[in-house]
Every structure is written in C-alpha cells, then in structure tokens.
Amino acid sequence: MKDQIFRYATPLITGLFLISLISGALLYFHLYGNYVRSMHELLSMVLILPFVLHLWRNWRAFLGYFKRAPFAISMVICVLAAGYFVITATANTRPAFSGGPPQFAFAHKMMANTPDKLAGLFGKAPDQLVEQLKLAGFSAAASDVSMSEIATKSGKDEGGIVALLMAR
Q1: Planar angle of CA 129, 141, 167, nearest 5 degrees
Q2: Domain boundaries, the chain
Q3: How far apart are alpha carbons 141 and 5 in whole angstroms?
C-alpha cells in the first residue's frame, strides 16, 4: 500500500504544479480571477501532501542536494525574493489598489460607501436596499454601515454584494 501511495507522489506534484503555474499566471494577468483564485489556493494547499511524500520517499537523494552550493545559493535567492515582497508590502504607504486595474479601485471605493449613499445609484430607496441585503443573507446590513463592513460582519464576501447590486 505504501508503495502505491509513493508511486503517485511525483505525478501528483507535476499535475498540481502545472495547475498552480497556469492559475498563478492567470491571476497575475487578472484573467478569470474569481474563477481561478479559489482553485489556485486550494490546490496549492493540496500540493503539500504529495510534496511531503516525495520528499520522504527521496530523502537520501535530497540530502545530497543539501550539501551542495547550488542548493544553498538557490535557497538564499528564494528567501531574498520572498523577503523583498514582504518588506515592500509592509512598507507600502500607497493607497489600496494603486497600480491595479482601475475597475478594482472603483469597486473598492464603492464598497466604502453606505447603502444610504448608494441606493439612488441602483434605483432604490436606502431602506429597500438594506432590506434586499438582509434578504440575501447580509445580516449586518444597516443604512449607515459601509457595504464592505456589511459583508465582513455578515461573514460573507464583498463579491456577493456586488453581484446583488448588479442583478436586475
């Protein structure tokens, strides 16, 4: 049984890596984001198990890599690359969504508003919009709470509010 499990580790790593590679590229280029993001995140987590099995199965061969300079140099490069993104993300004082697609920045600004301010844009009275949000499961809906906060406090995604607002 153990050999059967180990036999699938490398093929699973290959398949899951290809999915992660393609979905990561799609996310980078902002293509199919909502459709790809959850697949990318979940299957990247699934990738951990076959990786661990592969590492376990080939531990002696990996020990040889650990002792050589190319491995150490590669690890230093990877840590520096990751560190760069962590440092620049934490030091970033620019406003949210700057440099991103303008439609995301627009949606972010819209979600910062309350139903009182947005209702007229969607041909509704504020109390109608609040009621519609509550019926859709956004229990924290109130006329003076931002749409983003309504989603968060209701334990839901902002995308649900956007979809609700855009539905005819």
Answers
A1: 40
A2: 2-57, 102-166
A3: 49
Handedness of CA 57, 61, 67, 71 (dihedral sign): negative
The single residue listed with the structure tokens 């076959």 is 50
| Residues 125-164: b if buried by 16+ CB within 10 A, e if exposed | ebeebbebbeebebeebbeebbbebbbeebebebeebeeb
Q: Which amino acid would we find at residue 111?
A: M
Angle at 17 between CA 27 and CA 104, to 5 degrees: 10
Two tokens, residue 14: 């290959």
Residues 6+ apart with CB under 8 A from 130: 115, 141, 142, 143
In the chain, which ranges are E strands? none
pTM as predicted: 0.50
Q: What are phi and psi of 131, to 5 degrees?
A: -65, -40
User: Tell me: the pLDDT tens digits for 3-51?
Assistant: 788 888 889 999 999 999 999 999 888 888 778 988 999 999 999 999 9
